[in-house]
Amino acid sequence: MPQSVKPSRKELSHERILEAASRAIRRQGFDGVSVADVMKEAGLTHGGFYAHFDTREDMVAAAIAYGAKQSGESLERGVAVRCRRGATPFRALIEAYLSELHIESKEGGCVVAALGSEMSRQSPKVHEASAERIMGLVRRVEATLAPEVPKERAMAIAGTMVGALQMARALGGKAGKEMLAASREALLEQYDQGHPSAMADNDG
User: Fold this and answer.
1) Residue 39, in any domain of the structure
2) Which three-class secondary structure state does DSSP give residue 52?
3) Into how many domains does the chain fold?
4) What is the DSSP string of 87-125?
5) Host domain of residue 83
6) C-alpha span between 192 and 19 (Å, rounded)
7) What are 119-151's pLDDT values in tens digits?
8) Where are the alpha helices (DSSP H) in the chain?
9) What pLDDT digit, counting tens, does each position of 172-189 carry?
10) Domain-embedded: residue 35
């Protein structure tokens, strides 16, 4: 078997920058993050930034995709656990996304929920990266719907999921948890028909 290729020093540094940036933008928003802050959090010098990105905009766009990949993988782990316990893929997705844990995990959670209200005000490059993340979540929902549910409903469901999480975070405490519970119940009552389906490999 061929030996795995060890990442280069530059590749490891690039990963650290994206990790720091993806968490920072979810924590502080697009405008609250500077190159200097990200490089400091990554444990690297400010001057080293330009060996990886031409502009801050390039870093932010890449960080959105990186953060979505991370949160998507975490979501899929939660979905897989629930499916093994007998939940349908749709129920598993709704319960994993609208979980109380997701209220607090802003830095590692869904980039759409963390940044959705700011996405339309960004540069074309960042807006395009953001829009792809939204459609990734829509595709993820669509892949779990029962055959008799129109695929177009995936957009409405994804919007409900994101909005519920944003409002739950804004409310916090007991009210926030009640918001998630009510949203889960409404979506499952309307769309969880008990049909098996397969999860798509899309970012969210």
Assistant:
1) no
2) coil
3) 1
4) --HHHHHHHHHT-HHHHH-TTTS-HHHHHHHHHTTS-HH
5) 67-191
6) 35
7) 888 889 999 999 999 999 999 999 999 999 999
8) 9-28, 35-42, 56-84, 89-97, 100-104, 111-119, 124-142, 153-171, 173-191
9) 999 999 999 999 999 999
10) no
Rounded Cα–Cα distance for residues 112 and 155 (Å): 13
State how far the Cα of 165 lies from the Cα of 161, in Å rounded to an integer. 6
Amino acid at 18: L
- pLDDT score recorded for residue 89: 96
Structure tokens at 46: 């400010």
Q: Please tell me the pTM assigned to this model.
A: 0.85
Q: What's the Cα-to-Cα distance from 142 to each of 39, 89, 93, 169, 202, rounded to whole Å? A: 38, 11, 11, 25, 11
Q: Please report, for the domain that includes residue 143, its CATH number.
A: 1.10.357.10
Mean pLDDT of 162-170: 95
**Residue 60 falls within a domain, yes or no?**
no
Residue 53 within a domain:
no
